[in-house]
Amino acid sequence: MSLKTKRTIQVVIRYTVLIAVGIFMIYPLLWMIGATFKPNNEIFSGLNILPKKATFEGYLNAMKNYGGDINIWKAMLNTYSYVIPAVIFTIVSSTLTAYGFGRFKFFGRSVLFAILMSTLFLPQVVLNVPQYIMYNIFGWVGSKLYLPLIVPSMFATETYFVFMLIQFLRNIPKELEEAAKIDGCNEIQTLIKVIVPMLKPALVSCALFKFMWASNDFLGPLLYVNNPAKYPATIFVKLAMDSDAGFAWNRILSTSLISILPSIIIFFIAQNQFVEGISAGGVKG
Amino acid sequence: MKNKTFKKVLKNNIGFLFILPWLIGFCVFKLYPFASSLYFSFTDFHLFKGISKYTVENYVDVFTNKNELKALIVTFKYAFITVPLKLVAALFIAYILNFKIKGVNFFRTAYYIPSILGGSVAISVLWKALFKDEGLIQTAFAMIGLHAPSFFSDPNWALFSISLLRMWQFGSAMVIFLAALKGVPAELYEAASIDGAGKWKQFFSVTVPLITPVIFYNLITQLVQAFQEFNGPYIITQGGPRGSTTLMSLLIYNNAFKNYQMGKASAQAWVLFVILLVLTAIAFYSQKRWVYYADEER
Asked: How large is the ipTM?
């Protein structure tokens, strides 16, 4: 076999693998989209993505109330009413912490930094029970303001983001800050005028990940939201599935798809930031 | 005078003020819960009845009670099925994507979407639609004349069907691998190629040794995630059939938030935590042997 044929075969194999795996990754999602437009008796009758007889029945039913004071729109509004504050607080508190660790020497810095890093892999599962007990004492369980889902984000509790920002800060030269200092900026002015603009790509990545994770969070609301009118989309979708299972799959799938539509749109707008963010956080450790 | 020293101390430690919110958050939302859960784990704490005695029974039960032991075993099975397969898939696909591939961005996006959306309840619902009895996968099997297993109601299949959902989300690990592969200098491949090393040989003797820090990082993050998996089994199988998908996290949830046995649940969480600690420690100690850091002198 000549070298050239061998090369060609290698290239063909590569593309075949990529396309085959790609189908495995994407087909379920495309099928889901198609299924939301199918009548219920068609959904599981074949592997086709496009409906033979398109209908909006699924969507129309998805917008109906299941009873109680909640529907998909309200549930999504509930979701973003704590997701957006949590994103903003996470960014602010993580930036402050990263700035403190990344740019200053102070008493106990090395010990505190070691503590910070040790929490990077601290499993949430060991904290769930005692946190619940604590929030229960605080009176936060069932809080109308979603306090357990928002307040911790004010204190840079997501170590991953702090770590990512510190890594990013390390690669920013200090000259500009020194120039700012000579110009008479204090530490906070330097942070706002010099550091934040340069950190912007990393901050965008952090915001995007926090947005996705907080929107997808299921256990948090499951534990801390107990008023049906306050249910977020994740809980609503789970309940919709339980109450409809076996019957109206086009309704369940439509409800599900609507609930992740904002996430899908944001992913497509900002996919490069996602990829860069995850690469930066993971690689430079 | 005193004021002046205070100002000086403040000036020298101004960084401390920036990390203060984190420090408070660490103490309130992490350290205190962490410590108190260790304390609770040695009690019979019931959310409404309080503590009536101190005991080690909670820990003994994890290893002697049939259901609890089973959950532990199921958790190990789940992690040891999911993590290696996921990492191998991620590395393999990243390796292929690292060749000059046309439309690399398109493929990367396609592989990455499941990771971003996969954690949502909506995707668990989709998984149920795919693998349920008379669901899409069974339809597909039937079309080629095969009889498909009952993925979620057969105890032999349920755990695997749930782990597939996680494996399907290999994209984030893949993106990290891809970034690492881009960092491997091309000259090394050329040198290896001149020495007569084929693609496979290059992969195992050039690529893999150089990206071990990243393999190590991915291994630990994936292990920590897998041992805490909750959404999939809770939403899709509720731990069934016959406990075959009751992972530790599900058992902890049921004990704590259905039976209000906070002490018992805390002990189970601690067992899980110690297991993760041991696995991470093993990985860390063994890394001296297999992880290669470029700035290290050998």
From this structure: 0.91
